[in-house]
Automatic annotation (TrEMBL), chain A:
Keyword Signal: yes
Protein name: Extracellular solute-binding protein
InterPro entries: SBP (IPR006059), TAT_signal (IPR006311)
Pfam families in the record: SBP_bac_8
Top-rank taxon, per record: Bacteria
Keywords attached to this entry: Signal
Species in which this protein is naturally found: Pacificispira spongiicola
From TrEMBL, chain B:
Organism: Pacificispira spongiicola
Keywords of the record: Cell membrane, Membrane, Transmembrane, Transmembrane helix, Transport
Subcellular location: Cell membrane
Gene3D superfamilies, alphabetized: MetI-like
Any one Pfam family match given in the protein's UniProt record, by short name: BPD_transp_1
Name this polypeptide is given: ABC transporter permease
CDD domains in alphabetical order: TM_PBP2
Organism ancestry: Bacteria, Pseudomonadati, Pseudomonadota, Alphaproteobacteria, Rhodospirillales
Domain ABC transmembrane type-1: start-end pairs: 70-276
Family: Belongs to the binding-protein-dependent transport system permease family. CysTW subfamily.
Length: 380, 291
């Protein structure tokens, strides 16, 4: 999955010319003032690979101060790429990773997961909604937990209700309706736009697919491309099109591209989950999780950070960021949200969406489906 | 001028060539070799497997969609070269001949635009080309119906973005060539009775060809790698080679496939340039022989 957010600024641990010069200036001033004060150097440093939002200073700084630690960030823009980097050997350099849950779970079979003992995290689990408590199956490997859930939401049509009724999107049928020609936007976020369309075709993409099913995937993608105006990777561009009506629906984004707009007052933008079709749930639940990496250090500070990142106050910070707003699994955090924030997050709808959705995992035939996507796009 | 032939064992020659050779070796040849080596591997469960087989190459040569995208990329690049030169030449000519007084100021403005981040410029075009953007607003002001042009998320928008970002290269190379033309040759042409048009086609244009060719090559090479414009302005529905390579590396996490497509793109680019060079040289030789 690749989520693109516009306007990423410099992040901690990221060097550029300006920060370098600033740093050198600071060093000069410190040296001129008679050296560095005691304790200026943190006793432990953590290397943390994560999505945008997890790196907010309001999240990292209190932890760094309290634990006398430095957290260096490596931002990822796609989960698969982040996993590939770790698998290629970078896992030795990292202590923690926050990514999409299938990729956290995959660290188990890949051999670089530092499994967590659910008993050590009993307090954290007890704060979670019952749906996320131990043993939380989507993050289990071989009976052991690979990480803790941190953010979640659902993938369904994102609709501007100024232009369309929500009932119109109780199914993905409009994606294929000629009346919506050049009005559909697919989010270019890896497999996210593929899965809903495949579900609409009556195929469960999270099961092993035979050739007939893959042929059906090809047919449905080809049909969807006919009405597609754009395949957009940038969240801001997709949101702009949705607001001005040039896109009537965003497919493959869901709450990830809705909540921040709703928080800014565009409460007529909604992400819904279509009704089940022929017994097949049409929605998809996505989830981000944070896991510890087995880099040989067995760092206690890393484990503390994992407890910290799922704590109610931090979960609230993580839920509401500048770029996106997302649900968190921490039930206690719910009391910290304002009514406006709860409305932005569509909290009144979340369990309806949950009940009508598949859980997003790594599909067995994902590479076949991505190849079909490429082929049909080339042939368009 | 007498050209002095030097032996390859000449220490002075070796000394002067070594730094460049080392740079080329470390930053071009070795990465290229590593990329080529990668194409003979496979990925299993998102991890590289050192298999040394032809799986990836078999896939590339058996799936036509890779070649469809490559062909689209080369076509777009060639169109971009032609349009860039057509836009750049008059601008460079005016700069070198008619706007000499303001040429420094104009060059500074062009350089400013050139140095502005391509991401910013490309996203800026969305505001211009959108259905309810600046262009349609202007057209509506002069009496056209609302949303007359539907340019955004089309190959035309991709081409506009590419031209905007790349036409500046031939503008400068042609300008430099024009500035180097001996003014006496042009005056001699007029003295011999040639019209302005004939003087342009028989004196100015041939003498500015080095700048024109180098600008065209720059635009062609950069167009082959165009990534932002098809993605942002083209709406991703007509992907070019760079997007295909990105998808292979990033979305599919298939590094051998991405590496192989990179090699294919490099080879196609090199072959196109070689063909261009070959025909240009042959034409020159034919002309020389005829003279």
């Amino acid at each position: 999955m690749t989520k693109r957010i516009a306007g990423n600024g410099p992040v901690m641990g990221e060097l550029n010319r300006r920060t370098m010069l600033k740093g050198m200036g600071g060093l000069g001033i410190a040296a001129a003032a008679g050296g560095f004060p005691q304790g200026a150097f943190a006793s432990e440093s953590l290397n943390y690979m994560c999505w945008e939002g997890y790196n907010a200073p309001s999240i990292l700084e209190p932890f760094q101060k309290r634990n006398d630690a430095t957290v260096s960030i490596d931002l990822i823009t796609d989960s698969a790429g982040g996993f590939a980097k770790l698998a290629a050997g970078a896992y030795r350099e990292f202590d923690l990773v926050s990514s999409d849950s299938p990729w956290i779970q995959r660290m188990g079979p890949a051999g670089f997961c530092r499994f967590i003992d659910d008993n050590d995290f009993a307090k954290q689990y007890s704060d979670f909604y019952p749906q996320f408590r131990a043993p939380f199956e989507p993050l289990q490997f071989d009976g052991k937990a690979t990480g803790l859930p941190t953010r979640w939401g659902w993938v369904g049509p994102t609709v501007n209700t100024k232009f369309d009724k929500l009932e119109t999107w109780s199914s993905y049928a409009p994606v294929f309706d000629a009346a919506y020609k050049d009005k559909i936007c697919l989010l270019d976020w890896g497999d996210w736009p593929i899965m809903p369309l495949v579900l609409y075709a009556g195929i469960n993409p999270y099961e092993e697919l035979d050739q007939a099913a893959l042929d059906e995937v090809r047919t449905v993608l080809r049909a969807a491309f006919k009405n597609t105006r754009a395949i957009v990777g940038d969240l801001a561009v997709a949101q702009k099109g949705l607001l001005d009506g040039s896109f009537r629906a965003l497919i493959g984004g869901g709450t990830y591209c809705t909540s921040s707009l709703r928080l800014k007052g565009h409460d007529y933008i909604q992400s819904i989950v279509p009704d089940p079709k022929d017994g097949l749930k049409q929605g998809i639940i996505w989830m981000e999780a944070t896991g510890l990496i087995d880099n040989g250090k067995d760092s206690k500070v890393a484990a503390d950070f994992l407890k910290y990142i799922v704590s109610p106050a931090v979960a609230k910070e993580l839920a509401i960021t500048d770029a996106t707003c997302n649900l968190v699994p921490n039930q206690k955090a719910e009391a910290l949200f304002s009514d406006a924030e709860k409305s932005a997050l569509q909290m009144d709808y979340m369990w309806t969406a949950w009940d009508n959705s598949q859980f997003h995992t790594v599909a067995p035939n994902i590479d076949d489906m991505l190849a079909i996507w490429q082929e049909e796009l080339a042939a368009r | 001028m007498k050209i002095e032939r030097k032996s390859w064992t000449d220490p002075v020659l070796i000394g002067s060539v070594t730094p460049l050779a080392a740079v080329m070796l470390f930053f071009f040849v070795i990465p290229l070799v590593m990329t080529t080596v990668l194409t003979f591997q496979t990925t299993q469960y998102y991890r590289l497997a050192w298999t040394w087989d032809l799986t990836i190459w078999t896939e590339i040569f058996s799936k036509p969609h890779y070649w469809t995208i490559m062909l689209r990329t080369v076509s777009m690049a060639l169109i971009c070269v032609v349009l860039s030169v057509l836009i750049a030449y008059p601008c460079a000519y005016a700069l070198a001949t008619r706007l000499k007084t303001y040429s420094t100021q104009i060059q500074i403005l062009i350089i400013f635009a050139f140095l502005t981040d391509a991401v910013l410029k490309t996203f800026g075009w969305i505001l211009v080309l959108d259905n309810n953007g600046v262009l349609n607003w202007l057209l509506a002001k002069v009496g056209f119906p609302p949303e007359t042009l539907n340019l955004l998320y089309t190959p035309t928008a991709t081409m506009i973005g590419m031209l905007y970002n790349l036409a500046v290269y031939p503008m400068f190379t042609i300008y430099l060539s024009l500035m180097r033309i001996d003014r006496d040759l042009i005056l001699a042409s007029y003295d011999a009775g040639a019209s302005r048009l004939r003087t342009f086609f028989e004196v100015t244009l041939p003498l500015s060809k080095p700048g024109l060719y180098s600008g065209a090559v720059l635009v062609f090479v950069l167009s082959l790698g165009a990534f932002l414009e098809p993605r942002v302005l083209g709406g991703g529905t007509s992907p070019m080679a760079s997007e295909l390579i990105r998808q292979s590396f990033e979305t599919r996490v298939n590094w051998p496939l991405g590496a192989a497509l990179t090699i294919v793109l490099i080879v196609i680019g090199a072959l196109t340039l070689a063909a261009f060079g070959f025909f240009t040289l042959r034409r020159k030789a034919t002309k020389g022989g005829a003279a």
